[in-house]
Amino acid sequence: MNKVGRYKFKAESYLCDFRGKATAALLGTFALRAATLHADERGFGYEQVSKDNIAWVLSRLAMEIYDYPFHDRTLTIETWIESISNISTQRCFHFIDEKGKTSGYARTIWAAINTTTRRPVDILGWRPLLSDFIEGDKGFPLDKNIKIPAIKESQNPTSCYAIRYSDIDINKHVNSIKYMEHTINLFDISMFKSQRINKIEMAYIVESSFDDTLQLYKQEISQSEYLIEIKKDSTSICRSRIHWEAETIQE
């Protein structure tokens, strides 16, 4: 089977924002769906690995978007495994618009966790044949090392949020895209009228569960760059960095 998977998604109008475009969270959802399909087809998807009491856990996500698809437009995503170590895998994504033009890239880092002990698994010791799917010679523009600093603790939280039913995923913890949505919702809608997110980086540190109350902190680094940190009391749950650029709406 080809090491690179290629999948098509449609930016349905009911999933798009007031600009008539896909959101960063929707593109993140498409990317994770592409990863799921790619893994399922090659024998290491959710159903296959859960038989070993193992789950894939997303630890890092970075997306750089040059152009968001308008409603009812199709986006093609190519995805492949770039590298595998004993503790993590690097997966790459290439976003392609209807005209065949590159509209963005994404990179994710995954760990394999024993669902009973919640401890990391030696990936190559557990599934050595995964190395057969590595496509490591394509070249890729996004940095492998996604490092996001903590926010200064002196400031008060920008917002607080209590985890509810719709935030919880099949592993009984907060869905990774939900963290992205809550992060983006810290920005006023007026920003989206003149700007767009051209890069978003997420670092998932500790899991959170139903009924946890989270504190969300936002720090402005410059007019185009912000840091966001989500905490439960003093524990850092998730960190993100968002870059903005001017937006021109032209269909």
Folded structure, characterized:
- The chain folds into two domains: 1-146, Hotdog Thioesterase (Thiol Ester Dehydrase, Chain A, Roll); 147-251, Roll (Thiol Ester Dehydrase, Chain A).
- Helices cover 17% and strands 37% of the residues.
- It is built from five helices and ten strands.
- The protein has helices spanning 24-41, 46-50, 123-126, 176-184, 189-194; strands at residues 5-10, 54-65, 74-84, 89-96, 102-114, 159-162, 195-204, 213-222, 225-232, 235-246.
- The protein has a ten-stranded antiparallel beta sheet.
- It is globular.
- The relative contact order is 0.16.
Which descriptors would you attach to this protein?
Thiol Ester Dehydrase, Chain A, ten-stranded antiparallel sheet, 5 helices
The helix count comes to 5
Shape: globular
End-to-end Cα distance: 37 Å
Low-confidence stretches: none
Radius of gyration: 18 Å
How many distinct domains?
A: 2
- SSE run: EHHEEEEHEHHEEEE
Strand order of the largest sheet: 1-3-4-5-2-7-10-9-8-6
Give me the CATH architecture of the largest domain, please: Roll
CATH top level class name of the largest domain:
Alpha Beta
Tell me the major beta sheet.
Answer: 10 strands, antiparallel
Q: CATH topology of the largest domain, which one?
A: Thiol Ester Dehydrase, Chain A
**Helical proportion, percent range:** 10-25%
Structural class: alpha+beta
Rounded mean pLDDT score: 94
Strand content: 35-45%
